[in-house]
Amino acid sequence: MKSSDIFGTLGVTLLLLAFFLNLFGWIQKESKGYILLNFAGAALACYASVLIKFLPFIILEGTWSFVALIAFIRVLTRSKRSY
Q1: pLDDT at position 67 over 70
Q2: Contact, 19 vs 42, CB < 8 A?
Q3: What is the distance between the alpha carbons of residues 42 and 38, in angstroms, rounded to a whole number?
Q4: Coil vs helix vs strand at 37
Q5: Of 15, 27, 42, 30, nearest to 71 (Cα)?
Q6: DSSP code of 28?
Q7: What pTM, to 2 d.p., does this model score?
Q8: Which of 4, 21, 45, 81 is positioned for an S-S bond with 27, CB 3.0–4.6 A?
Q9: Distances in whole angstroms, Cα of residue 22 to Cα of each of 42, 56, 70, 82
Q10: 83 has pLDDT over 70
Q11: 45 Cβ partners below 8 Å, 6+ apart?
Q12: pLDDT greater than 90 at residue 60
């Protein structure tokens, strides 16, 4: 198995895990865990796309991970203001 396959499979697994957990109400979309699963999954899938030089998914997963990172920063700053 190529490294791109490993990174891509792990990334997609994390994304699907976040989706599944949210869909069944076991994790909220505003939670740190959900956002981190999305960030890590998208970042790994983006890296796999870079390895295989597939631009459409580099853009998709890169954007997904960037948005998840912004969401995580917002959650962190919101929770710090709550204290």
Answers
A1: yes
A2: no
A3: 6
A4: helix
A5: 30
A6: -
A7: 0.90
A8: 21
A9: 16, 26, 19, 24
A10: no
A11: 7, 8, 11, 12, 15, 57, 61, 64
A12: yes
Q: So what's the pLDDT on residue 8?
A: 97
Three-point CA angle 6, 34, 46, nearest 5°: 35
Residue 82 pLDDT exceeds 90:
no
Tokens 């505003």 identify what position?
30
Task: Give dist(CA 5, CA 8) in Å, integer.
Answer: 5
DSSP three-state, residue 82: coil
- Phi and psi at residue 4, in whole multiples of 5°? -65, -35
Asked whether 10 and 44 are in contact (CB, 8 A), the reply is yes
